[in-house]
Amino acid sequence: MSKQKGSDLVRERFYRVFLEHNLKLTRPRRALIEHLMAKKGWHFQAEDLLRELNEKSPGVASRATVYRTLDLLVDSEVLTRTRVHENSYRYELADVEGHHHHMVDIRTGRVLEFTGDEELHRMLDRICAEQGFKEHYHVLEVYGEFEQAQQSGEDVPLHDPGQLGN
User: Fold this and answer.
1) Quick check: pTM over 0.70?
2) Which of 45, 72, 100, 159 has the fewest Cβ atoms surrounding its Cβ within 10 A?
3) CA-to-CA distance for 81 and 67, rounded, in angstroms?
4) Cα-Cα-Cα-Cα dihedral of 156, 163, 94, 7, to 10°?
């Protein structure tokens, strides 16, 4: 799938959510959508998004608008939410082009994407079959600490959208 086609699909998904919920596509919502489209692969916290939106266009978005819109987009499966601490979450665009999993650093909140290999998916299929369970989808989040952070005692950058695997 071309990069442009993928972007068009994601943008269409955003707009469809607002139409389905009879919500106007206001200036703050358009700004939020365009900001997220420009940062594909970005794992962000709501406050990061709010700050960046208002740095770009002062006063464009309120905290309430950002949080309500994020909740709507998660419920509509346009965004995914990953817990990084007890009451802290990171968001990202839901995958249009492929499935991936997350490693979450419990100390820094850094999220690293990785793709599951065939062995992992075969194991999940086998476990589901043994239990008579039909999987619709799965989410795998592995929590721990990256060695770099453990050894140096320093925080690893939170916005590293690095990926492992293929």
Assistant:
1) no
2) 159
3) 12
4) 110
